[in-house]
Design brief:
single chain, 629 residues, mainly alpha, 2 domains, five-stranded mixed β-sheet, 5 strands, 65% helix, 4% strand, globular
Length: 629
């Protein structure tokens, strides 16, 4: 294990230098038309009737063109380059048409005519404008409709209940109704719940699980950081700078780091087993037990999720304006509004990850996959009670999950690891078949779920055993982060040699082996921290600040994509990207996401969660009463 990360690193360096790729120097690169362009937005509406359009168009030629051939050859390396024959421009159509004498009837025809004139003059190329166009005028307003009003009323009710609960808590009202309202909606009470730590409980199991909080927060920060690249890799003036990142090995930790989502499936499976053993241990579990677990899990996730789903499908489109608002709101959120209103049932049933045509809250694929794996987990533990039968079923599920990954990789000719590329940053993975067929389905994430369930069972079973003899392996635990980095870097081989025939069958095997290795080492690291086999990682991950922040991770995951799209959509000009600019966007997005999550948790998630807990309490009281009778 000591030599594994070193071997992976040097192997990727060797293949990097052995592989050929097309690079252009500055003058050659400048011959290509810019991928992005924006006309001044405010000036477009100085004259009455101003119309601004965001368009996507392709470069074409009626005759042989050396420039177009160079562009197509350069763009063919789509893992490391933008598609420079597919351009996104923001154009003030009325300014371009200002000196024409004939009336402007067809916007698409007008834009294509102007583009053909400009591109033939500058590049000896022609264009083909793609549908749809995203155009807006200064007088355009989005009307408020019935769903907008309904969500506004529900939001007002929640805010009013928070104010009322906080006031009753402040003045110390003692009636039964006031106590119930205070218990759920008091900001002070919910703040106390937020800052409470497992050290203040009498459950040793919860105290042992504190390192998981640190891992959750760190992984969530990493996920938000990757997504925060959207504003700085779309509509940028120096696309060559971002493409140059793919020559820097450091950034491959980010580009191939999408595998980190596996960690959340592991943690979810681990916590499920421990909770199940604590609540159902030595009791007779049956189908009603499974249904109750599933219902309460569904209710816990859905209450805040449904609120944000309603907000996204209504008021999100009213919040901003700018040259890119049409692009990021009509192209993404506008379609998102339609999809959310049409396909809301998919989200409430947690099956949206299997409907790839929907653009509604794309980040919630994880919630759907996690809910599906939760249902599988509860069925395994309820219907198979012996240790032997559970081992057989879990082993079978693990192998089935690996076979699903290998089959999908073979059938759809996928890459073994989902990689962030320049083109995917333009479309948020919506068109990426690796994302659709390998990353988001519940069944392809079965191996992580099974490893998480196994981890939880070991952690619960051996919590009172003597583990001193295992502390001699503490040095091995210190190396696990390096091993995980090595696994991520190994995916670089399949990026460089993705078209090589010899890699075809190798990547089929690696699609299952990569997640299995990654998940196994993550589980070993978590297990070592739970049992305190070493002190460095454990003491760091047990910091109480992680415990508090981990309560915000669900809210942060829900709100961060909307925030990122808002920031991207309100840009008024092309951004000149640099490392400092990207770092500022990352830090700002992470900070604002957790700040928004803090408000959302206090006002929405925590009160609704308290209502959820009250329902569980009522159910348990009724069950205990029946048992007494």
């Amino acid at each position: 294990m000591v030599y594994f990360p070193v071997l992976c690193f040097f192997l990727t360096i060797c293949v990097r230098f052995c592989a050929g790729k097309m690079d252009l120097d500055g003058p050659e690169y400048a011959k290509m038309p810019p991928v992005y362009h924006l006309d001044p937005y405010e000036e477009c509406f100085f004259d009455p009737g101003g119309v601004y359009c965001d368009i996507n168009f392709a470069l074409v030629s009626d005759e042989p063109s050396a420039l177009l051939n160079m562009i197509q050859q350069y763009s063919s390396e789509n893992v490391i380059h933008y598609n420079h024959s597919n351009l996104d421009y923001g154009i003030c159509i009325t300014k371009k048409y200002k000196n024409r004498t004939e009336p402007m009837i067809d916007r698409k025809m007008t834009l294509e005519r102007w583009l053909n004139h400009t591109f033939w003059k500058n590049y000896k190329l022609k264009t083909r404008v793609k549908d749809p166009l995203y155009c807006g005028a200064s007088a355009d307003e989005i009307p408020i409709d019935g769903p907008d009003i309904f969500v506004a009323v529900m939001s007002s009710i929640i805010i009013t209940l928070n104010l009322l609960g906080s006031l009753l808590d402040f003045f110390g009202a003692n009636c039964k109704f006031a106590k119930g309202l205070v218990s759920c909606f008091s900001l002070r009470q919910n703040w106390n719940r937020l800052v409470a730590t497992p050290d203040q409980t009498n459950l040793p199991t919860l105290k042992n699980l504190k390192p998981i909080n640190g891992i959750k927060v760190i992984c969530m920060v990493f996920v938000i950081s990757i997504h925060s690249f959207l504003p700085v890799t779309n509509y940028m003036s120096n696309t060559q700078y971002f493409e140059s990142f793919f020559n820097n090995y450091f950034y491959y930790i980010i580009f191939n780091g999408t595998i980190i989502m596996q960690t959340f499936f592991i943690i979810s499976g681990c916590l499920f087993v421990i909770k199940y053993c604590l609540d159902v241990e030595e009791k007779t579990a049956n189908i009603m037990t499974a249904l109750k677990f599933i219902f309460f899990r569904w209710l816990r996730l859905t209450l805040p999720y449904a609120f944000l789903l309603g907000f996204t499908s209504t008021w999100m489109r009213h919040l901003g304006s700018g040259p890119l608002w049409q692009f990021f709101v009509q192209r993404f959120i506008g379609n998102e509004v339609k999809d959310c209103r049409r396909n809301w049932w998919m989200h409430l049933l947690y099956v949206n990850n299997y409907f790839t045509g929907s653009e509604c809250m794309g980040q919630t694929w994880y919630l759907a996959a996690d809910m599906q794996l939760y249902c599988v987990s509860i069925c395994v533990f309820v219907f198979f009670k012996s240790v032997k039968s559970r081992k057989i079923i879990l082993t079978s599920l693990f192998l089935i999950g690996c076979l699903f990954r290998m089959w999908n990789t073979y059938y759809h000719n996928l890459d073994p690891i989902l990689t962030m590329t320049p083109e995917q940053s333009r479309y948020l993975f919506q068109r990426d078949k690796n994302f659709i067929h390998l990353y988001v389905p519940g069944h392809t994430n079965l191996p992580a779920c099974v490893i998480g369930l196994t981890l939880g069972y070991i952690a619960y079973t051996y919590q009172n055993h003597d583990i001193e003899k295992f502390k001699k392996y503490r040095q091995a635990l210190w190396l696990i982060p390096l091993v995980l980095v090595g696994i991520i870097y190994t995916g670089l081989i399949f990026i460089i040699f993705r078209d090589a025939v010899s890699m075809y069958y190798m990547k089929i095997f690696f699609s299952a082996a990569s997640v299995t290795l990654f998940d196994t080492f993550v589980a070993i690291l978590i297990l070592g921290c739970i049992f305190k086999i070493e002190d460095i990682y454990t003491s760091f991950l047990e910091w109480n600040g992680w415990t508090i922040s981990s309560k915000l991770t669900y809210s942060a995951y829900l709100v961060h994509i909307g925030l990122i799209r808002y920031v991207a959509g309100t840009k008024a000009a092309l951004i000149h990207t640099s490392f400092i600019v990207m770092l500022m966007y990352v830090l700002g997005t992470v900070t604002l996401s957790f700040a928004g999550a803090f408000v959302f948790w206090l006002v929405v998630e925590a009160p609704l969660n308290q209502i959820f807990k009250a329902l569980i309490h009522i159910n348990r009281k009724a069950r205990n009463k029946n048992e007494v009778v």
